[in-house]
Amino acid sequence: MKPGGLSGTPSHTAYHPRWYRERVSTYWWLWKWRYLKFVLRELSSVPVAYFVTLTLVQVHALSDGPQAYADFQRWMTHPVFLTLNAISFLFVLFHTVTWFNLAPRAIVVRLRGKRVPEFLIAGSNYAAWLVISAAVAWLILRS
Amino acid sequence: MAKKPIEPFLWGLFSAGGVVAALLIPVHLFLFGLAFPLGWLTPPGYESLRALASHPLARIYLFVLCSFSLFHWAHRFRYTLYDGLQIKHLNEVITVFCYGGALAGTAAAGYLLWGLR
Question: Minimal CA–CA distance to B82: which of B94, B70, B72, B67?
């Protein structure tokens, strides 16, 4: 970068300017709700991975036979797993809500040259979520 | 972080996984992780659940659910460590751990679901 290149106006200095950067604390996100929300949202990926692991263990138990599956079901009633599941469920809900609320920023839909309002895009995401959740629950509960 | 040609592809997987996770994980986790163990709802019997899960379409569904969600995790977790905790000196290790983990999980999902009859 040439001196004065940032502002666009030529300035003359005898020394090359050095950019001063303050060190950012590792815990920069703790002190402001907006930043904390961002980090909590990012951390929601860990419960997602936990869920996949749980599902793969469940599939494994399903193929192993009724005894293995009964064991899996018994583990799930253990307080440790119930706590993990409850926390993970809250994190995943947080992921869903933040994801759908951001969707209108990522997907810009235009109809007859007019931008479709954000609440319609977010709303259709929530509607799809409800319909799909109901369908999945119906398939599982009816079986 | 240096931009590599693979980055848009990884971001695409992250994004697709984000949609899959947002739409599908809550209902699964609620049913199998809370509602059934706590007795709020009656869980399906072993034989019928196995029959449901081993349907070819259900196996493809579960494979997509697991694999895409893992790649979503990989990308997001990598940047959580990078931005959130500013762990920058372990960049390569973290990248290998995240995407390698997602690949290993995908392989495990494929193996388990292929064998589910």
Answer: B94
